[in-house]
Amino acid sequence: MIRFIYKRLLGAIPSIFGLSIITFLLIQLIPGNPVLTYLRVSNIQASEEIVQALRVEMGLDQPLITQYLQWLTNVLHFDFGTSFISKRSVLDEMVLHFLPTLQLTTVAFLLIIVCSIPLGVTSALHKGKWFDRLTQLFAFSSVSLPTFWLGFLLIYFFSVQLDLLPVLGKGSVVHFVLPATTLAIGYIGTYLRLIRASTIEVLEEPFVLYAQARGLKERTIVWRHILKKAASPTLTGLGMSFGNMLGGTIIVENIFAWPGMGQLLVESIVNQDYPMIQACVLLLGIVFFLTNLIVDILCGWLDPRIRLAGDRIK
Amino acid sequence: MKKRSIWAVSLIVMTIILSLAGCSQQDEKETAATKDDKKVFTFSWSGDIGDLNPHSYFPNEFFSQAMVYESLVYYGEDGEIKPWLAKSWDVSEDGKEYIFHLRDDVKFSDGSAFNAAIVKKNFDTVLANREQHDWLELINQISTTEVIDNYTFKLTLHNAYYPTLQELTYVRPLRFVAESAFPASRDTFKDGLTAPIGTGPWVLKEHKENEYAIFESNDNYWGEKPKVDEVVVKVITDGESRVLAFEKGELDMIFGNGVISQDSFKFLKESGKYETKISEPTATRTLLFNTNRETMSDKNIRVALQHAFDKDAVIDNIFYGIENKADTLFPQNLAYTNVEVDPYEYDVEKAKALLDEAGWKTVEGKEFREKDGQPLQLELLFISTDNIQKSIAEFVQGDLRKIGVDVKLTSQESNTFWTTAFDGNYDILFTATWAVPFDPHSYLASITTDSSGGGPDYYALSGLSFKKELDTRIKQVLLTTTEEDRIKQYHQILTMLHEEAVYLPISYQSNIAVYKKNIMGVDFLPQEVEIPTTTIDMKN
């Protein structure tokens, strides 16, 4: 197992390196000039002198390759530079935005698991009955609801009309309810259908029949044997979704005034804040890589055959 | 068993919902209790308040800088310059020396004294980064700063630059921080402040970046103390969320320009549950014609477009009367802008006649006019995310089609938009003046400097035959020494711009305020970016 993790970690280095080069080249394609953008958001009217001075200060007067190598050397020393726009440390800003997103994502993620697994399994067991139909309806509508509309709808009913929950900001546990629900609902719909489908598939396998013949309690069969088998295809998807949510969900963040990664990333792209974009993409690359690694380990734990196959290849 | 599992699921979901709802009620009670003993006023802003450094720019916000820091002189109603930290001033005959007599009762919020030495120190740190503040002409004009005595400060300029006092009222960079706020390097621009300590009515009490900031009343304040004890500024990026938070009661007021949609404003106003107010015009939303393009270089065409555009329809249908119709480049309530000109009235027939005169004739069976076989097509550039610009652009397109002009709408993301605008790749462009206290003199000055230095206006106007003369006149007016001369020269410049029809003013932008009925004293301040936090009071 340790060998497996070690190999995967080594394998990730070239991908992340490649990612940083591609990002670096792509951001050069954003139209406009970062110096002028900085001046504009600061409400400063540009003059030739100040533009030149800022170009030197931001290191934009250097050739591209020098800029990249300089950036890479700094990053290897854990120096992500300062933002072109806010003039603050990129690392500090990133941590400041990443933590709220991590919190929100974790809560939403738990909500997805807690809701979609029991709902999915139960509707598979009741295939074709009213409960199944009901979850199907829920699944379709939740996936097709636009997030911003759902968010406002939830705020309108639960905060403004019923006065149960706060509209925005973060602080206490209750502040998580609406944004996490908004974020999770679409995913719950997807995953409950996925779990339902794989459960139905597993239900027809012979081992279920044997288990029943062995006289095991139905509860044990469902929650220990069937679920374990049905979970692996869902897990891979969940891993990707977790990464996606950590990348920030600009819409949910905007609606609920949640200061997260999505806002930071979109803002830095709009403002051509090169060091910030680079650092964010790097962070997200690492996040995706780590969640995938964890998913692979979990899949191996759930289904030892995967682990064995992986070991044999080496 | 099957039934039991369904119940188990429902039970879990119900428990979660109920436990969370329970928490929320507790939370509500707590905030209600704290509100009872103190007057806490809450509003929202679309971004963080920033570093609270008066000598620096983004991410600093004007309104928060203005709450904590003050200027030597204040921009009053109708552009009148009023005493503030300086109780009076003398200007030398040649207009190059300004002597300020400072108030002797001003203290910084940390208790330290405000005097000529600290004024000089603040000026000097700003001047040490001259090139960063190069946009502000006064910075370039300052030659020396001197302490005459404890409460007398002298400013010497290179030229008799008349807008000196006006530029001293700006929110940044010429406002004052206390001795203890200076970093070890003495460079407030590069190294920031150790703490945001100013002379203003508010002191920063608590700040959670990107979430909220709490300001409390400054005990050492020399002027009239604020009526409420605390001001809370919550960060809300989205306009619709702002409206919902306000309806929920999490905000006491919505304030600003473009902070909520026109529809939301109308909805809140018509609900009858809240008070609403609209400020005097602050800036002008206008179209700019690019005189470098061959078609637009013809004055007849520009005038025809002015007559063809039905402004009233836009005011009624897009702004619901929230922004007033504009006929001149600057609102008439600013200093030197009260110029009498004949507005271009909506007159389709006149517009058609002008196009005929210019040689653009209607062709049988074709929708658009032609000249030498070329159809009359104009490109209108606007920012893709700006819904107001988009709606107006569609009105313009419709109106001009009626006189046989084909308008091509081009929308671009804001950075690309500005790049295209500066490069002059358009026929018609959306733009706006800079609002007081920058209007009119700073805006006009920007017309005279080339594209990297000013606005897109420099290039757009450079197709005019008298552009050189216009530039000279604008530069001259900034160095005039008598009021009479200044009024006369501004009059000529503004009349010239109006007659050449290079701008098509649409509406005057205003600040809006929507507030709960228990809030009083929401009086707009002359500077667009200031929020009337000191006059606001609330009944419990």
Structure notes:
The complex is a heterodimer of chains A (314) and B (540). Chain A is an all-alpha fold and 314 residues long. Chain A has helices at residues 2-27, 34-41, 48-58, 64-76, 90-125, 130-144, 147-161, 174-203, 206-213, 218-246, 250-255, 261-270, 274-302, 304-313. In chain B, strands 14-20-13-19-17-18 form a six-stranded mixed β-sheet, sandwiched between helices. In chain B, strands 1-10-9-8 form a four-stranded mixed β-sheet, with no helix packed on it. Chain B has 540 residues and is of the alpha+beta class. Mean pLDDT of chain B is 88; it is low at 20-33. Chains A and B meet through helix 2, helix 3, helix 5, helix 7 and helix 11 of A and helix 1, helix 7 and helix 13 of B.
Topology:
The complex is a heterodimer of chains A (314) and B (540).
Chain A (H helix, E strand, L loop, with lengths): L1 H26 L6 H8 L6 H11 L5 H13 L13 H36 L4 H15 L2 H15 L12 H30 L2 H8 L4 H29 L3 H6 L5 H10 L3 H29 L1 H10 L1
Helix pairs in contact in A: 1-13, 5-6, 5-8, 5-10, 5-12, 6-8, 7-8, 8-10, 10-13, 12-13, 13-14
Chain B lengths: L1 H36 L2 E6 L16 H7 L4 E3 L5 E3 L2 E6 L5 E6 L13 H13 L8 H5 E8 L2 E6 L6 H5 L19 H4 L10 E7 L3 E6 L12 E6 L3 H10 L4 E4 L5 H10 L3 E4 L4 E7 L9 H10 L2 H7 L6 E2 L22 H10 L12 E2 L2 E2 L1 E7 L3 H16 L3 E7 L1 H10 L4 E5 L8 H8 L8 H5 L5 H12 L4 H18 L2 E7 L2 E4 L3 E2 L16 E2 L2
Parallel strand pairs in B: 1-10, 17-18, 17-19
Antiparallel strand pairs in B: 2-3, 4-5, 5-7, 6-7, 8-9, 9-10, 11-21, 12-21, 13-19, 13-20, 14-20, 15-16, 22-23
Helix pairs in contact in B: 9-11, 14-16, 16-17
